Amino acid sequence: MSGQPAPSGRPSVFADDEPVLQSLPLLPGARSPLFGQTQTWDFNDVLRRPARLLPGQWRLTLMQLTEVQNLLARELAMIEFNPRHPKVLARGLHLQPRPRKVGTVQRHVGILRALSTFGAGEGLPEDFGQWSTADFHRYLTDRREHLDLSAVRSHILTIKLLHRLAPALSHGGLTADPWPGQTGAQVLELSRNRSLRTPVIPPQTWFPLIHSAWTYIDTFGPDILRARIYWRDLQASARPVPLSEARRLCEKWLADPSHRIPVWLANDMTRNKGATTTVNWSVLATMIGVAQPTSVFAAIAPRGRQLRARVEELVAEGRTQSGLLSGLTQVDRPDGTEGPWCMSLYPQRLWIEYTALRNGALVFVTALSMMRDSEVREILKDSVVEHYGSPAVKSTLHKLNPNLPVKHWWIIEPVAQAIQTAAELSVHDTLAFASVQAKWPIAHLDSCQAITSFVQHVNRHRDTTGLPAIPEQKLSPHMFRRTMAMLTRDFPGSEIAVGMQLKHAATRALANTTTQGYTEPSPAWAGHLTTAISDRRFEQLKELFDADGRGENIGYGPGADQLRGAFATVRTQAEHLRANQKAQRGDLRVEYGLLRQVHLTVRFGKLNHCTMDEANPVGAKCLEDAVTPKDTKAPSSTGVSPPGAPAASSPPRTCRSGPPSERPSRTCSPLPSSRPTVAVN
């Protein structure tokens, strides 16, 4: 069966009954859309749909186009889905063999729709092949006024594609390239070295957000999951019984002094607005084991009124609890008081907390694993494994990988805990991050909306939870990846990891690859990073100072002697200040204040480093045979100057590690493992 003739009379190279998807793997039992379908090509239940997409986003819409343009869009899509189709090869087109993704084809058809709208407004022919070069240039000018240049580039590439594929297009192919010899970037004068457009998350948002997400996972999560199990068990045991038996069960339950009546709090937003009492009758009936609360406590029956009166008496006596469970985790609140993080964890509130906990886990995993959103969303419930001796998560790597290989992402233990928490909440058969409520009409998870919802939820309830306020701004998974990449560049496994109390988060993140440019520094973090580095280094220097004050050995060699000499100078000056009554006797803050004034070019880390006299670097034996790049300063330098003295310049230097017994001609040796390791010369 041949294709329908185009208005020009030239038939399409593709037949109407020809399957569209001939080069992509279909799901078992699936049937591909046909080329002759002119309204919509539905790929649901045909191609594997990414977890982050809705069913409506897994279709190719061909409407809002004229008949000529509709045929052009179908031919373009057919070629992109089947680049090595025999009829395409017969027209002399030898394209890359890899089929285009659905999202790419959707974008190209959308650009054809934008061309159609522009042409209709300008009175241009519906056949794009009849447009002049000036028409396309005017279209480009119009797009530049409405879109970012990176988005405009796609329009140029699509128009060029119409020229390249013209031999296989029955109508609408371009006989000439409107921008011959130029790439889209050259047309738009885009610099090859332009900075990444994705912004970083500022520290005033990053820290409270990550802190709140981890608090939900590690502190609130156990209570939420415990309440979830408890409520499921209650629902499973509750059953419809005859009214007489239901009342007997009720009397028996109320007689047990360990049982407490579930009551609503006055300010509970989930409470029924029409409720006349504080008792949560439906939860009470389920606790008793009865599935018909309205019958047991019906006020129209004498026996029902008696049971209600008995319940009210127990409430007046104080035998109550404001939620499914008592003994929730206590938190410190902004007003200085202490109390449970949630005042009333009832089923009506529980699903809200399910969602918040799932969203917090998504935030945490996205931020600290440096995985793309598409890869996080494909994490399966049993995906946390051990990979080369370290915890890792298995996920599908999508970008630039047509075969969708499984990739192992190294993670830290808290991230593994977050994934397990999300998996326990998920009602999906296999996915860890999915809907948490089977009956909720929105069964899909939108990552950007989940992040926004978590921020709003934390800010709404922070008076009760004690969590810090999170500045509300536009956040996306891409921004988390960009921010963590930048942090690992400036903080390779030290201050950021310590500050978040997440052990080696940055070190593990460095093992996961990122797009070039993600690690570019951000002015928003410059001040914070500088202060954090200085504070952390001073903390490590104080540990050496205190150890020296206790008479412990801080190292070997002239470098260690210089450190001890500097520390002795600090103590002498502190004693002088005390003697002249310029400081309180015995106040360690005097020594620490003077210690901050001492110029110590010490670089701390996991490897052994040198300390030396910068004014006389020749005395540092560990510099022998050292090879370092020109005009660089090795990160292992250590020099000492007295308080107030200017820093001396020094040449590049490195240091070998090892105890003196093994290297008699080298004097580098390690410190005890309980303190920051620094080798001295």
Describe the protein's architecture and organization.
The protein has 22 helices and eleven strands. It is mostly helical and 681 residues long. It is flat and about 90 Å long. The N terminus and C terminus are likely disordered.
**How far do the termini sit from each other?**
86 Å
Instruction: Going across the biggest sheet, name each strand in turn.
Output: 7-8-9
Radius of gyration over all CA atoms, rounded: 34 Å
Q: What characterizes the major β-sheet?
A: 3 strands, antiparallel
DSSP, total strands: 11
- Look at the helices and sheets and give the structural class: mainly alpha
Oligomer: single chain
Fraction of residues in helix: 40-55%
Instruction: Please report the number of helical segments.
Output: 22
Q: What are the low-pLDDT stretches, counting only 5+ consecutive residues below 50?
A: 1-9, 492-511, 603-609, 625-681
Estimate the mean pLDDT confidence: 77
- Strand content is 5-15%
Principal-axes geometry comes out as: flat
